[in-house]
Every structure is written in structure tokens, then in C-alpha cells.
Amino acid sequence: MAAQVQPMIVPTDAELLQAQADLWHHSLGYLTSLALKCAVELGIPTTIHRFGGAITLPNLATELSLPPSKLPFLGRLMRLLATSGAFSADNSTETVIYRLNPLSCLLVDGVVVDGNAHQKAIVLAANSRHYIEAALSLSDWFRKDMPVRSKSPFEQLHGAALFEESMARLDPESHEIFNEALAAHDNLGISVVLQQCPDLFKGLESLTDCCGGDGTTAKAIVKAFPHLKCTVLDLPRAINAISADSPSVSYISGDMFKFIPPAQAILLKLVLHFWNDEDCVKILTQCRKALPPRAAGGKVIIIDILIGSSSRTMLETELLVDMLMLAVTNGQQRDENEWRTIFAKAGFSDYRIVKKLGPRRDTDISKEPRNQLVTLKL
């Protein structure tokens, strides 16, 4: 028997007008991110920086070598990006002056932020054809009856997986951008962790950084704690491209699902959100095998997103990143209950949230008698 259709509560005129505005905002939100991609490709953040950090629209067009006919359109682009918070705009004079703000500072070529280069690869990757097409295929993906451990919409559509050789064969240029974005994403923020959460590393003599890439994070840690010996574990294709330049950091190629080099602490910085729950349990189980007893200081340090910010904007950002994981990987972002379940299945019986750092968060996990887990939410 078909369910009875319940009558709809008719919104008021004011509610309908607001709802229409909200609908347009949600439907056209993608244009903001694509406008930011356009600004990155034109080199607008770098141009403003080279011009002294502030520039008028006519000067910006000249510096970008744009045709004079494009000046009005450039103004419309910058107006949107300034309104959305990508740039600052000073309207107190007759001619608007555009300035860099913390967000656009991250997109300046050649400027080191937090010990790392610019973050523009993140903008280019997130707005790439491959990412957008994967998101466009979500409804088709949902309709297909597939095992839980099935291919992501990205892999199902493109026949290639992110960061794998299959992606390199499909589109070498995009593969390089995706890896640059991954490195930019992974490395940013470690100096904040070291400044605000130094107790995480105090007293440690050894640490293994799983999926540590080129060792940027490990080198920042040993710079702050010179007595600490760090081992970077990553796949052979990542390790083979590295030239070791620090006596306190060693590199080992391997698979964290099979073996993790023993250390007093294991670091998983922005790693677990790429994996489903079952795989996360396997990784954490290998961590337990690599650790000494808790009495000897053994612990796992996890730096990752923890869904649940009180700020609506921050929470929406966390959920957007979760949707990105749904579209392009087999992983996900997790709330505290979901993290707790994973920790328990891996044999850890307690945790502690250490510090909230922007959209990620710090959590300390340690009831289990052998070792301790620390999760950082940045």
C-alpha cells in the first residue's frame, strides 16, 4: 500500500524569498571555486604580492598583460572573490584597492608559508576536470548495487585511482598536480602543531612518520627536537625520489599495512581519512605491533579532521572534505564516535583530544595497557 502523501507546510512569502536566494547560492557555489581557480591560473595572488601587496584594478590588468577590453570582466571576477573572502578589497577610495589576505597569501608563487611552498595545487586539483566529473557522476554511482569495498566514483568513472600509476598513465600532468596538492595539504600546519602541542613530542627518542613523503614533516620535528630520530615510511615510488639531507631522518620504503618500523611513537598525519574503517583498523594494528609498552612512552599520534566543529562554516568545510573523500577515494572524514569505534577495534581502549587547530583536531587515545593514541584535529 502506497504511503499517504502528507500536505506540505506552505512557507511564508519572506521564507520563500529567502529559500530562493539560498537555492541560488547552493546551486551556483561552484562558480566561486572556479573563479578562484581562474585567479590562480592568471597569477593574480603572485601579481599582487610582487606589486607590493596592494593593487588597483587597472594596474592588475596591466601587470597581468590582459587586453584592455577585459578590464570590466576582471572587476567582476575580483568583486566576487573579495566578497567570498579570497582577497581583501578597500572601497574607501574612488578606485578599489585589492590586497592579499591570509587565504590568498597561501597562493603566492615562491613564498614559503609555514615552512612550505604555496598551496595553489590544492585549488587546481580540487577544480580539475577529473574531480568535477567524479562529483557529477555521484547519482549514477549511488544507483549501482556494489560491494562496500567498491571503487570510488573517481575510479569507477576514470578507470584510474588517485596517486597510483594508473593515474599517471591516464593523465601525467594531472597526476603531478594531484601529488603536489597532496604534499601541500599534508605538510602545511606542522609548525602550528609543534608550537601549540610541544608536549606530544617531548621525551620521545624515536618516531616513525607513516606516509611521510619527502620528509618535510619529519625534518620540522627534528629541527624542533634535535635529539629525536625520525624514520619516514612510504611506498617505494615516493622514497626512491628522495635524496636524504638530514642525519636525523632516515627513509624506508615499505607498506604500512604489512610492517611499520618500530619506534617510541608512530605519526599518522592526514593519512587515515584516505582509507575505509577496515583498512584503518589494519593500519592501527600494525602501529600497535611497532610500539613499546605505554610505560616506555609508546603512543600513536594521529593528525586528522574530526567532524563536529561548533562553527557552522568550519563544520561545512569538514563535511565538504568528507564529500571529496566520497567522490575521489575510498576514505572518509569521521566524527568522534566513528574514530572511537576504529580505535576500539584496533585494540585501543581510550583516547584524548589534545588540541583543536582550525578545521582539524587533536585527540589523545590511551586506556589500552600497552600504548597510547593521540589524534590531532587541525
Could you please describe the fold and organization of this structure?
Helix 2 crosses helix 5 and helix 7 packs across helix 12. The chain starts with 12 loop residues before the first helix and ends with a strand. The longest helix has 17 residues. By secondary structure, the protein is α/β, with parallel strands linked by helices. It is globular, with a radius of gyration of 23 Å. It is built from 18 helices and 13 strands. Strands 4, 5, 6, 7, 8, 11, 12 and 13 form an eight-stranded mixed β-sheet that branches. The protein has a three-stranded antiparallel β-sheet with strand order 1-3-2. The protein has a two-stranded parallel sheet with strand order 9-10. Helix 16 links the parallel strand 7 and strand 8. The protein has three domains: 76 residues, Arc Repressor Mutant, subunit A (Orthogonal Bundle); 59 residues, no CATH class; 181 residues, Vaccinia Virus protein VP39 (Rossmann fold).
Topology:
Elements: H1 13-28, H2 30-42, H3 44-50, E1 54-56, H4 57-63, H5 71-84, E2 88-90, E3 97-99, H6 102-105, H7 120-126, H8 129-136, H9 138-143, H10 153-158, H11 165-170, H12 172-187, H13 190-196, E4 206-210, H14 216-224, E5 229-234, H15 236-239, E6 249-253, E7 265-269, H16 277-290, E8 299-303, E9 306-307, H17 312-328, E10 334-335, H18 336-345, E11 351-357, E12 360-365, E13 372-377
Parallel strand pairs: 4-5, 4-7, 5-6, 7-8, 8-13, 9-10, 11-13
Antiparallel strand pairs: 1-3, 2-3, 11-12, 12-13
Helix pairs in contact: 2-5, 7-12
